[in-house]
């Protein structure tokens, strides 16, 4: 606890301060006499020298930039990244693996106490779900969204004329990603190739700021907002050039046949290998410039095809560890029916199919449901022991409607998974679970706070929280996947 007030700290500009704790996003956190201070990159227990970098904001909080660690924590390690201080994409890169894991465990326990209404003494122990072994040098990310910026060219400047990378919260620059330690080797190679193609252009394409200044009018050159890159395997991947909004209805057609972008697409088309797809898109349209249109990712023994509109995991080995543990927790039996709620491209449903009698997946994204159906056809879903193929069905629908429709159709299930994005499902949707006969549930929550809110609702409906886990699916970052197994004794008369 820091005894100075926020006004005193702001007036001093540079302060030496002791970090109390972590904030929710992995930053160092200090309780001040009349508020809070957040210091990204500082660890609990450390004495650090900080430059105040913001005024007193909402919730009486100020931010500080870490200038020097005066007394380092035992949990501090070499971040193995030369851009750690300016990038901030990996908030836990300078901590030991043990510290990183205990951060995830704390996150899960804190949200359940705060938003889930579960007293600390009633929480089951929290297990860590992570690839084994994991080391500081492991890189896992197989997709990334790179912002684009055109740099003003001056006569005496022979720089590249553009930046492609992550927006830095610390400096006015994009952090290049070709040597990012979070990216897998296939990703680094593809990012390097894209970077080289941009560097070879005679003229740099417009960026978002140029488009904004020119007013998004028809006739203005199409401008690039970002470039999405994904590559799970060396030589296989896809590149999507995302354009800024414009009033030009034929923007995509113009982009492909005119000006600086035409050269970019031609060179990308010539340079990217046969198994790397290329597309150009605005927020509501996409043109495929080069096949393959679908990306194939090898995951947990499955061959999964992914369209441009599908969500798919950003990491492979950590996700495989997660899915393996989820299947264990479900404890599926061969005469059971299983429901995958938020099935995406079908991964959990297809993994469960080898163990049960019947599987249904549901998702609001019709593109993902189409991909999941394709993936059901493209993978062997037969039970190893009996050789019998389990019927797998995927349906399009929002949580509440889809669950109600299943109920109206007289469908019944024994076990389910829920894997939303970052929003809770809410009470009404969750109330259908027991009506559908579901007695065992594994909740995979990418937003631990939202998951905890749903768990609070479930507990009020008589569900019991059996086990808790913290999955480290984005190693070196603060992102925690909350994994909870719940069970319900069943409603008499249902
Ligand atoms: C994190 S992804 C999970 C995908 C899948 N379980 C997997 O592991 O590959 C979350 C999924 O929830 C779906 N979703 C989001 N909101 C939804 C809603 N209201 N109703 C149904 N599905 C929804 C998204 O389309 C997305 O595919």
Automatic annotation (TrEMBL):
GO terms for molecular function: histone H3K79 methyltransferase activity; rRNA (uridine-C5-)-methyltransferase activity. Keywords: Methyltransferase, S-adenosyl-L-methionine, Transferase. Gene3D superfamilies: Nucleic acid-binding proteins (2.40.50.140), Vaccinia Virus protein VP39 (3.40.50.150). GO terms for biological process: rRNA base methylation. It comes from the Bacteria. InterPro entries: DOT1_dom (IPR025789), NA-bd_OB-fold (IPR012340), SAM-dependent_MTases_sf (IPR029063), TRAM_dom (IPR002792), U5_MeTrfase_fam (IPR010280). S-adenosyl-L-methionine binds at residues 363, 419. Belongs to the class I-like SAM-binding methyltransferase superfamily. RNA M5U methyltransferase family. This is Uncharacterized protein. It comes from Bradymonas sediminis.
């Amino acid at each position: 606890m820091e005894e100075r007030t926020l006004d005193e700290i702001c007036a001093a500009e540079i302060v030496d301060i002791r970090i109390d704790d972590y904030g929710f996003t992995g930053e160092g956190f200090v309780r001040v006499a009349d508020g809070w201070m957040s210091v990204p990159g500082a660890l609990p227990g450390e004495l650090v020298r900080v430059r105040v970098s913001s005024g007193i904001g909402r919730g009486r909080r100020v931010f500080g930039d870490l200038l020097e660690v005066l007394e380092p924590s035992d949990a501090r390690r070499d971040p193995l990244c030369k851009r750690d201080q300016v990038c901030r994409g990996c908030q836990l890169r300078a901590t030991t693996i043990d510290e990183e894991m205990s951060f995830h465990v704390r996150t899960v326990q804190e949200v359940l106490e705060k938003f889930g209404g579960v007293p600390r003494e009633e929480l089951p122990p929290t297990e860590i779900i992570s690839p084994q072994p994991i080391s500081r040098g492991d890189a896992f990310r197989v997709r990334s969204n790179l912002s684009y910026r055109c740099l003003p060219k001056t006569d005496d400047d022979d720089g590249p004329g553009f930046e492609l990378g992550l927006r830095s919260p610390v400096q006015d620059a994009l952090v290049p990603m070709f040597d990012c330690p979070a990216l897998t080797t296939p990703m680094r190679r593809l990012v390097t190739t894209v970077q080289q193609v941009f560097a070879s252009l005679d003229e740099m394409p417009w960026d978002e700021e140029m488009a904004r200044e020119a007013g998004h009018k028809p006739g203005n050159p199409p401008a690039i907002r970002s470039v999405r890159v994904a590559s799970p395997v060396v030589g296989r991947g896809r590149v999507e050039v995302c354009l800024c909004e414009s009033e030009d209805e034929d923007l995509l057609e113009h982009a492909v046949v005119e000006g600086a972008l035409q050269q970019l697409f031609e060179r990308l088309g010539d340079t990217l290998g046969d198994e790397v797809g290329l597309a150009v898109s605005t927020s509501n349209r996409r043109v495929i410039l080069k096949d393959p249109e679908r990306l194939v990712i090898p995951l947990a023994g499955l061959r999964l095809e992914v369209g441009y509109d599908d969500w798919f995991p950003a990491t492979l080995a950590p996700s495989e560890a997660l899915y393996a543990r989820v299947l264990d927790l479900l404890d599926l039996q061969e005469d059971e029916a299983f429901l995958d709620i938020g099935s995406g491209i079908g991964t959990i449903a297809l993994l469960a199919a080898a163990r049960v009698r019947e599987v249904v997946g549901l998702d609001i994204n019709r593109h993902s449901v189409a991909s999941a159906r394709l993936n059901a056809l493209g993978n062997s879903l037969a039970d190893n022991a009996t050789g019998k193929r389990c019927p797998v069905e995927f349906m399009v629908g929002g949580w509440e409607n889809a669950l109600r429709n299943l109920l109206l159709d007289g469908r019944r299930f024994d076990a389910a998974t829920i894997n939303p994005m970052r929003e809770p499902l809410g009470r009404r949707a969750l109330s259908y679970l027991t009506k559908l006969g579901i007695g065992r549930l594994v909740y995979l929550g990418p937003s631990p706070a939202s998951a905890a809110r749903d768990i609070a609702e479930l507990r009020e409906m008589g569900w019991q929280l059996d086990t808790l886990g913290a999955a480290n699916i984005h190693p070196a970052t603060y992102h925690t996947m909350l994994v909870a197994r719940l069970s319900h004794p069943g409603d008499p008369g249902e």
